[in-house]
Design a protein that fits this description.
InterPro entries: Homeodomain-like_sf, HTH_AraC, HTH_AraC-typ_CS. With about 350 residues, the protein is mostly helical. It is built from 16 helices and no strands.
């Protein structure tokens, strides 16, 4: 009992502290989304505080247990709202309030003196796991769409592809699996409890290691999204596309803007003298590449020149990636392998033979 109480206390306390840090926006980015992730973390802490009270036989604290139980069905809706606000910060949170209807439905059940049929008790007991499956699938779909979208306006997708929140989702799913397993395999509860604590530590780390999702202000996000999504709309004539393409390629050759690791679609559009919509249309229609493919193609060609130049033998592969405009070794390796068909290390070994 002492072991369980310690684990549940650490989990509940850590999540409660995390919820405060997120709600007061310690990361200094994604303010509205962090509010809901903080509320999600708070309700998750309530689950562990309830487990703590059960472990120390404090069932007589009926009002407190009712409060702790009430927010259980709001954990995943809060996470889902936060995810949507990370992806679309320009949308108001009121757009997603319908997801909290099950939580409101739970309130009269907990406060009233109802005798539920066996099926109703079963639904109450396992509805959280149904939510977990539903929101896991839905959230993964949204994250996949987001990754496809960001490659159309940034060259460093690794920083803003929400991989950290994908890991949060995975941790929440694992917590659900552990909880479900603990119901049917109580002999493994010491291992399950230890895994709970490990999951909460990882959850807290990823929640606080987030970065800004978009390199522009929130009111500019819809403009960029509309520009990169509506590629089939004819915005320029064939002659205009040809003219702007020539201007773009000449600037890429002369000014080498791809060596700037912060370059993105709005910045490049300003440099070449086009609107975001026009540049996106030229890339899609005139060149047939996404912004990510276009910029990183130039960077990889620059990196290959550095690798092939014997005067650069003292450069490490990481230094070559930095000199080529990448700010992430992972992004460099991924882009290089996509472009060349092998890793930079293997390419270097090949040219040295």
């Amino acid at each position: 009992m002492v072991y369980q109480a310690l684990i549940y206390g650490l989990c509940g306390g850590s999540l409660f502290l995390l919820s405060l840090l997120l709600m007061f926006n310690l990361p200094k980015v994604n303010k509205q989304a962090n509010l809901f992730l903080g509320i999600c973390s708070f309700f998750l802490s309530c689950v562990f505080i309830q487990l703590l009270l059960d472990a120390v036989n404090a069932e007589e604290q009926t009002p407190l247990l009712f409060f702790l139980e009430f927010g259980r069905w709001a954990i995943l809706p809060c996470f889902f709202v936060a995810l949507n606000l990370y992806i679309s910060p320009e949308k108001p949170y009121t757009h997603y309030l319908i997801h909290f209807l099950p939580t409101l439905f739970l309130f009269p059940i907990l406060t009233g003196n109802y005798t539920l049929p066996a099926f109703g008790v079963y639904v109450i007991r396992y509805f959280l796991y149904f939510q977990l499956l539903l929101y896991a699938v839905w959230s993964n779909f949204l994250l996949k769409q987001h990754r496809l979208s960001v490659e159309k306006f940034t060259s460093q997708a690794g920083n803003i592809d929400l991989n950290w929140i994908q890991k949060l989702l995975g941790i929440l799913f694992l917590l659900g699996v552990l909880s479900f397993s603990g119901r049917f395999f109580p002999l493994f509860s010491p291992i399950v409890d230890a895994l709970y604590l490990l999951c909460i530590v990882q959850y807290s780390y990823y929640a606080l290691s987030q970065t800004a999702i978009y390199p522009v202000s929130n009111n500019q996000v819809p403009v960029i999204k509309e520009a990169v999504i509506s590629k089939d709309k004819e915005r320029l004539t064939a002659d205009q596309v040809s003219l702007f393409k020539e201007r773009l390629l000449e600037m890429m050759k002369q000014d080498q803007p791809y060596l700037d690791p912060t370059i993105n679609l709005p910045i490049l559009a300003e440099q070449v003298g086009l609107s975001v919509h026009e540049l996106s249309y030229v890339l899609n229609t005139g060149i047939g590449l996404s912004f990510y493919q276009f910029i990183n193609g130039y960077r990889i060609r620059h990196a290959r020149q550095l690798l092939e130049n014997t005067a650069n033998e003292d450069y490490s592969i990481y230094e070559i990636s930095i000199r080529s405009g990448f700010n992430s070794k992972t992004t460099f390796y991924t882009a290089f392998k996509q472009e060349v068909g092998m890793t930079p290390k293997h390419y270097l070994q090949q040219i040295q033979q």
